[in-house]
Amino acid sequence: MSISIAIVEDEKNYNNALKKIINYQDDMKVVAQYFDGNDALQNLPNISPDVVMMDIQLQDMLGIEIIDKLKKQLPATHFIMCTSFEDDEKVFSSLKAGAMGYLVKGESMEKILSSIRDVYNGGAPMSFSIARKVLSHFERKLPEIKGFDELTEREKEILELLSQGLLYKEIADKKFISIDTVKKHVGNIYRKLHVNNKVEAINKLNHFKN
């Protein structure tokens, strides 16, 4: 089964280049292209793609706004920011809105393709420069620890495995459960810990241990 992908990018050459290289892969397919935010906002809920490659600075709105408005309607869709902006505010606003990955334009197509596969399998791909920002930010700002008492033993086990870098399929195999069951547990973990993505959940776990 191929990974369905939507591209939201107002730079037409880059949008088309992404589509061409993605459609060349055996395991993924572009199901929609949008060149402005409003079009994406109106049509993405009807498509429910597995992954959305989202530009931050669209001509009519910020990609962050689109994620913020659509995340609840598209709980199974993974958003990857793909942008030329690296400033802290946009990075953390994106993650807070629910983006699962953050790539800087200029990354190789191999990195972009591997990031799509990674996020689809439960990863949180980021460009190296972005990952360093995220780590230093979390070191400065310790999150409030909430919700751990509400986690079931199975949810705690799955969160621990996520923190070890295991993907959904690996967790499913290790615990002898289906990938859908893993995803359901992960959704419950996010809700109980009041987080939007894996990075925040693992960070809370690490501070809880300390």
UniProtKB/TrEMBL annotation:
SUPFAM superfamilies: C-terminal effector domain of the bipartite response regulators, CheY-like. Residues 144-209 form the HTH luxR-type domain. The lineage of its organism: Bacteria, Pseudomonadati, Bacteroidota, Flavobacteriia, Flavobacteriales. It comes from Chryseobacterium profundimaris. This is Two component transcriptional regulator, LuxR family. It comes from the Bacteria. PROSITE patterns: HTH_LUXR_2, RESPONSE_REGULATORY. InterPro entries: CheY-like_superfamily, NreC/VraR/RcsB-like_REC, Sig_transdc_resp-reg_C-effctor, Sig_transdc_resp-reg_receiver, Tscrpt_reg_LuxR_C, WalR-like. The keyword DNA-binding applies.
